[in-house]
Specification:
The structure holds 2 protein chains of 2 kinds.
Chain A: E1 2-6, E2 9-11, E3 33-35, H1 37-51, E4 57-64, H2 68-78, E5 82-87, H3 94-108, E6 112-116, H4 127-135, E7 138-149, E8 152-159, E9 162-169, E10 172-176, H5 188-194, E11 199-203, E12 215-221, E13 230-232, H6 235-244
Parallel strand pairs in A: 1-4, 1-6, 4-5, 5-11, 6-10, 7-10
Antiparallel strand pairs in A: 2-3, 7-8, 8-9
Chain B: E1 2-6, H1 16-26, E2 30-37, H2 41-48, E3 53-60, H3 69-79, E4 85-89, H4 92-104, E5 110-113, E6 115-118, E7 121-126, E8 131-137, E9 142-146, E10 162-165, E11 175-182, E12 195-199, H5 206-220, E13 223-226, H6 228-232, E14 253-257, H7 263-269, E15 274-279, H8 286-289, E16 292-295, H9 298-308
Parallel strand pairs in B: 1-2, 1-4, 2-3, 3-10, 4-9, 5-9, 12-13, 12-14, 14-15, 15-16
Antiparallel strand pairs in B: 6-7, 7-8
Helix pairs in contact in B: 3-4, 5-9
The chains are: A alpha/beta, B alpha/beta.
Family (chain A): Belongs to the ETF beta-subunit/FixA family.
Cofactor (chain A): AMP
Protein name (chain A): Electron transfer flavoprotein subunit beta
């Protein structure tokens, strides 16, 4: 059984985003870029399913600029078998990414597509659900546990008040949440080995899909700043201030 | 413009998140609700009474008992033939259904809106709320999810919408419900709590978290939250997580205990009215947003605070 894991190259988790002077977006030149953390969890889950003998091949795919090669190499170093890079000079929105992924699913015929539940740059949380809709597949969002058996996958999902477990027929989509697993670090030998794993490069234009953006970003601004308050000396002063604010009576 | 608002409910009553989505939708046009479930006539009556609601489309069917999105999405798509915007609260339920509907309508969704600037223009947070983008949609139909803390709750009374049963589209056979584990707790739910006490990694263990945070929360009648680090460390379940990848909250009072204030955490709570921070590191970023800060050892401060409040 083949698994497809779409991944995204984003501003590193630890870098504080800086807004461009012209308000056109967030500065992405000369800053550290990494794999979206939820996508790392998705890659890890796919590799674990393969290691358990439940899957045969892990294919990673990214839609974006040429530099996303580095991100795909990271996934290969973690243990993915091969990579597909779909390049595009302009930004492709989740709807467009989902359309490209559907085309790749048609070619590759995976039984499972595992994605991160959200990318930490645009915070859209859409691609997995959109792909599931386009394919007419089941979608297990925010997965915290995955059990694959026969032609079904049973997924425990994070929901607002706790957990929900649902069963899906294969093929299906899973989006990975925080607690699904802890992604491994690639070892040096595996990083070296990843350099010779296959990475196919294609252009988004070649798919003949309408990928034109539907949303126009008019401006990007800083959120309103919050004035910092006061430090109190001790618990007594804190209690007094809280009482004065009517917090506890 | 005619909107269709996704009703979040628990089978007995309409959840507060719905009320915020109604307020957002009313800025776009007429408010129709979509209520999906099994044996939900009572909830439908309640929903029809929400201020500003013109109509409730009720889909009552065994196939919708657990609101599995695979079964629900085709129904929404069908109803969207006669509506201009699908509006869902950005809850785990809303976030699951809306993009699937958007893709089926060939619409690019606008996620987590903070404001409605015009019928086609919205603001939304990106990069964990470190930037606010104003976006304009060129799609004819709109699909949006709503950050519930950014919109007032519509009053539960004063509406007189008609309830209309809609033909259901049945079980698509893609998914089935196995079970739910909803944390049984007398505490208020995080997203609607007036006061939240949240703990971070500095608590050191799940035992200490329970021993220090819970009595303080009890004293304040508060919900219990946590930083991602505390969830990662296994001190508390993930549904307590506040932040970019957890819940977005804006209570009257937010007490952050042993939370340094990583941008991802601040993204989830910085709209709280009063923020209180207790941390041993006086340079912790949490103090930059706190109205009241106390520097010191939380293991001494928190029990003393609980006693003296």
């Amino acid at each position: 059984m083949k698994m497809l894991v779409p991944i995204k190259r984003v501003l590193d988790y630890n870098v504080k985003p800086r807004i461009k002077a012209d308000g056109a977006g967030v500065e992405l030149t000369n800053v550290k870029m990494s794999m979206n953390p939820f996508d790392e969890i998705a890659v890890e889950e796919a590799i674990r399913l393969k290691e358990k003998g439940l899957a045969t091949e892990v294919v990673v795919v990214s839609v974006g600029e040429v530099k996303a090669q580095e991100t795909l190499r990271t996934a290969l170093a973690m243990g993915a078998d091969r990579a597909i890079l779909v390049t595009s000079d302009r930004k492709v929105e989740p709807l467009g990414v989902a359309k490209v992924l559907r085309a790749i699913v048609d070619e590759e015929q995976p039984q499972l597509v595992i994605l991160g539940k959200q990318a930490i740059d645009d915070d859209n949380s859409q691609t997995g659900q959109m792909l599931a809709g386009l394919l007419g597949w089941g979608q297990a969002t925010s997965a915290s546990h995955v059990e694959l058996a026969g032609d079904c996958v049973t997924v425990t999902r994070e929901i607002d008040g706790g957990l929900e477990t649902d069963r899906y027929c294969l093929p299906a989509i899973i989006t990975a949440d925080l607690r699904l697993n802890e992604p491994r670090y690639a070892s040096l030998p595996n990083i070296m080995k990843a350099k010779s794993k296959p990475l196919a490069q294609r252009s988004a234009d070649d798919f003949g899909l309408d990928l034109s953006p539907r949303l126009e970003t008019l401006r990007v601004v800083e959120p309103p700043a919050r004035a910092s308050g006061v430090k109190v000396a001790d618990v007594d002063e804190l209690v007094m201030k809280l009482h004065a604010m009517g917090v506890a009576k | 413009m005619k909107t269709l608002v996704w009703v979040e409910h628990d089978g007995n009553s309409v959840k507060d998140a719905t009320l915020s989505a109604v307020t957002a939708a009313s800025k776009l046009g007429d408010v129709h609700l979509l209520l999906v479930g099994q044996d939900v006539q009572g909830v439908a009556q309640e929903a029809a009474g929400i201020f500003g609601v013109d109509k409730v489309h009720m889909a009552d069917d065994a196939a919708y008992a657990h609101q599995l999105v695979e079964n629900v999405a085709p129904l929404v798509v069908q109803l969207m033939a006669s509506h201009d915007a699908f509006v869902a609260p950005a809850t785990t339920g809303g976030k699951a259904i809306a993009p699937r509907v958007a893709a089926l309508l060939d619409v690019m969704q606008i996620s987590d809106i903070l404001s409605v600037e015009a019928q086609d223009t919205f603001t939304r947070p990106i990069y964990a709320g470190n930037a606010i983008a104003t976006v304009r949609s060129s799609d004819v139909k709109k699909v949006v999810t709503v950050r519930t803390t950014a919109f007032e709750k519509a009053p539960r009374e004063g509406g007189s919408g008609a309830v209309e049963a809609v033909p259901t589209s049945g079980d698509k056979g893609l998914s089935s419900f196995i079970g739910q584990e909803i944390a049984a707790s007398n505490r208020p739910e995080l997203t609607s709590a007036r006061v939240i006490v949240a703990g971070g990694r500095a608590l050191g263990s799940g035992e200490k978290f329970a021993e220090l945070i819970e009595p303080l929360a009890d004293r304040l009648g508060a919900g219990v939250g946590a930083s991602r680090a505390a969830v990662d460390a296994g001190y508390v379940p993930n549904d307590s997580q506040v932040g970019q990848t957890g819940k977005i909250v804006a209570p009257e009072v937010y007490v952050a205990v042993g939370i340094s204030g990583a941008i991802q955490h601040l993204a989830g709570m910085k709209d709280s009215k009063i923020i209180v921070a207790i941390n041993k590191d006086e340079d912790a970023p949490i103090f930059q947003v706190a109205d009241l800060g106390l520097v010191g050892d939380l293991f001494e401060i928190v029990p003393e605070l609980t006693r003296k409040l």
